[in-house]
Specification:
2 copies of one chain form a homodimer. Chain A has about 120 residues and is mainly alpha-helical. Chain A has 4 helices and 3 strands. In chain A, strand 2 and strand 3 form a beta hairpin. The first copy, chain A, is elongated and about 55 Å long. Chain A starts with 15 loop residues before the first helix and ends in a 5-residue tail after the last helix. Chain A binds a DNA duplex (30 and 30 nucleotides) through helix 1, helix 2 and helix 3.
Chain lengths: ~120, ~120
DNA sequence: ACACTACATATCGAAGCTCGATAGGTTGAA
DNA sequence: TTCAACCTATCGAGCTTCGATATGTAGTGT
C-alpha cells in the first residue's frame, strides 16, 4: 500500500501478509470486475481452500486500495435492492500488480536461497 | 509459533511475517549455533541485503522461540565480559523447520496459482 | 407463512506483531 | 581516549488482523 510510486519493487518481509493480500486481490481483479464477497469466494476456490479472506479483513483492505487509487469501486444499482459494489483494476493497479509479481518472485528466490533449498 | 504440534503444515496468509521470521531463524540455526546479533548479520549477508531483522523484532522472537522449545539459548561465560547468548536448534525446532519448508513450498505454489502466473 | 441459509457490505474492540528509539554495556582499533 | 562495531534488551506507537456483531436482501424448503 505504501510502496513508492517509483523505485525498485520490493516485498518487505515486515509486511508480507498485507502485501500478499494486496497482490492476491489485484490479481483476482485483473481477470475482471468482482465485488467483495465474490473475491473472497474466488480466492478460496482458486487456492482450493488454502487461502481465505476474513470479512473483517477484506473490506477494510478494499477500501484502502480504492482510496489510494489501485482499484475503483462502483455501486451497482440494478433492479434488485441487494447492494453490491463492483471493483475493477485501475491503470495504477495494473502497474502495481506487475511490480508486485516481480517482487514476490524475488522474495521467494531470496527466501529459499537463505533457507538453503532450491526454489521449487 | 502457535502451530499445532501435529496436523498438516500450513503457512497462514495471516501470519506470513511471523512465520517467515521464524523459518529464516530456524534455517540459519540449522547450520549451527549462532547468537542473536550474528543471526541478523548473516541473514543480511545471505540474502544480499534483501532481508534484515530489526533488533527490536529479533530479540523478542528469539525469546519466544526459546520459550516454546524450538531453540535453546546458552549464555556464553567466556573469559570475556561481553555477554552473548548462543542459540541452537532443538529437536523440536528441527522438526518444525522441515515442516515449515514444506508449508512454504505449498504456499508458494498456491500463491502463483492464484496469481495466474507460471511458478517461476 | 415461516424458517433457514446464502448472499452482501460494514464496523469495532481486542489482540498481536513490527518499528524505531532508547538504554546499557564490552571490545578493539585509530 | 575517542570512536565504531559488537551485543542484548525493552517499550510505546502504530498498524494489521481477528472474530464478533450489525444490517439487510434473495432464494429455498416446509
Amino acid at each position: 500500500m505504501n510502496q513508492p510510486a517509483n523505485g525498485p519493487p520490493t516485498v518487505e518481509i515486515q509486511n508480507l501478509s498485507r502485501d500478499c493480500h494486496e497482490a492476491l486481490l489485484l490479481a483476482l481483479l485483473a481477470a475482471g470486475p468482482h465485488h467483495g464477497y465474490q473475491l473472497a469466494l474466488e480466492l478460496e476456490q482458486k487456492s482450493e481452500g488454502a487461502f481465505r479472506f476474513n470479512h473483517g479483513t477484506l473490506y477494510p483492505i478494499l477500501h484502502k486500495l480504492e482510496q489510494v487509487g489501485l482499484i475503483r469501486g462502483d455501486w451497482l444499482d440494478e433492479q434488485t435492492k441487494r447492494k453490491r459494489k463492483s471493483y475493477s483494476l485501475t491503470e495504477a493497479g495494473r502497474t502495481r500488480l506487475a511490480r508486485q509479481i516481480e517482487a514476490w518472485r524475488s522474495f521467494f528466490f531470496n527466501f529459499f536461497s537463505v533457507i538453503g533449498e532450491e526454489t521449487p
